[in-house]
Amino acid sequence: MSNLGAGLKKQDWDLESLPKFEKSFYKEHPDVTARSDREVDDFRKSHEMAVQGRNVPRPVETFDEAGFPQYVLGEVKSQGFERPTSIQSQGWPMALSGRDVVGIAETGSGKTLTYCLPAIVHINAQPLLAPGDGPIVLILAPTRELAVQIQAEISKFGKSSRIRNTCVYGGVPKGPQIRDLSRGVEVCIATPGRLIDMLEAGRTNLRRVTYLVLDEADRMLDMGFEPQIRKIISQIRPDRQTCMWSATWPKEVRQLASDFLNDYIQVNIGSMDLSANHRITQIVEVVSEFEKRDRMIKHLEKIMETRTNKCLIFTGTKRIADEITRFLRQDGWPALSIHGDKQQQERDWVLNEFKTGKSPVMVATDVASRGIGMIKSRTSPFPPPSFVSFEAPSPVLRLCDNGTVLDSLPPPVGVYDSSRLCRVS
């Protein structure tokens, strides 16, 4: 993987000769202007917002205040959303202003729309694509599943503008992706490795990219994509607008922001240290190894008393995911598994079976731990508190029941009462 991108041609950017482009579209709504500084501070405090940077725009409280054109606003309202989420309230004015943006927010906070809607506005303000042009908007994501989810959002909200997009990721034939890129797309959603393959093969270029998104930046770095990200960004004009979204803010992500973002503004929603969604109730049950499967069945029986419920079980390894799936199916449960060894077509099918409720029990490795839109089921990573010494929690069982996460861990050192439950708020 280290040689990936070695064939990319070094770009020598002359800003004076590059075509000019528009990236500032935000005009503050009169209702936002009329609010006092105290009211703005109170709103941010009540929504656990913290902002940093020079001249950060005020948050908006309604969709109308965001100042989106009617063609975008109509799509949003048609989906039945009542009001912006916290990250959207602050993130939309920031992204629409044309500034470089860092957004730190928990998984499931609505950050996909926070950058997708401004991207649509950005595209419609640019000259039309000419033959041979690459995309205007590039969105990098760590996994195929997240990339597909982002594509669904772009397709949904960009259809009135006839914005074309494609999703470029590994594990599937390149032919359809090459065809889309050759025809021309305004938006390319991609995982780093496959995108570099396309660039090295001359199937697309990034000369027209003026709006760059790094989604789940911390996850991409965890997966070792930093060299690929740096090579990709070197192919994009330096005066682009860059938006970086992350669930956490470790030093590696801070360094990436420092290297590639200019005079950026930042919003943090909730804690910067945790990626867990605080709207979810987490229950930790300490059990011995031999009790796990019996306890799992008992929890399943309780959860599945409601026919519409779904259950997502996380394991530490692919082997254990398959073992638990076989165990559940032998016991009569309609379970399917998903992990990185499965072909992309099978993974898509399993996800669809789970989402539609045809198979309401899914066993997964961390391939589905973040960024996957689940219907009536939410997931949340749970790191044990740093002041508690746990043995290796393998495998970790997470049963998701409409906002409830159950974590099954082996007993911590010195604890022998396996019947104890602790609720994490």
From TrEMBL:
GO molecular function annotations of the record: ATP binding; hydrolase activity; nucleic acid binding; RNA helicase activity
Swiss-Prot/TrEMBL keywords: ATP-binding, Helicase, Hydrolase, Nucleotide-binding, Nucleus
Residues in DEAD-box RNA helicase Q domain copies: 61-89
Catalytic reaction annotation: ATP + H2O = ADP + phosphate + H(+)
Gene Ontology annotations for the cellular component aspect, listed alphabetically: nucleus
Helicase ATP-binding domain segment(s): 92-267
Subcellular location: Nucleus
Enzyme Commission number: 3.6.4.13
Family, as annotated: Belongs to the DEAD box helicase family.
UniProt-recorded name of the protein: RNA helicase
